[in-house]
Design goal:
98 residues; single chain; mainly alpha; 6 helices
Length: 98
């Protein structure tokens, strides 16, 4: 994990997320912790990752999600060279949050 991400403060954040019991608690917590745009950006990245796994083109993804090609490229780089976090989550919840 890069750039000193593993800190006590980040551990506390992740512990807080892990303590959430359902979607409503997630909405309450994330609406307090993040701006609406930050939440939407995270959701967009997950959607982009799903579409990349479906082998959709950058143009299709950009048109459907509104994501920039830079964001799509960043997500693609994470899918190919990251820590397999997207795939881990997709294997647990299904690619579209089913």
């Amino acid at each position: 994990m890069g750039r000193n991400l593993r800190t006590g403060a980040v551990d506390q954040l992740f512990d807080a997320v892990l303590s959430l019991r359902d979607r409503e608690e997630c909405y309450s917590f994330f609406e307090d912790v993040c701006t609406v745009n930050e939440i939407l950006a995270l959701a967009q990245r997950l959607e982009v990752a799903h579409m990349l796994r479906e082998k959709r083109t950058y143009a299709d993804i950009a048109e459907e999600t509104g994501a920039s090609t830079a964001t799509i490229s960043r997500v693609n780089r994470s899918l190919n060279y990251g820590n397999d976090g997207y795939d881990m989550v997709f294997s647990r919840i299904g690619p579209s949050g089913e």
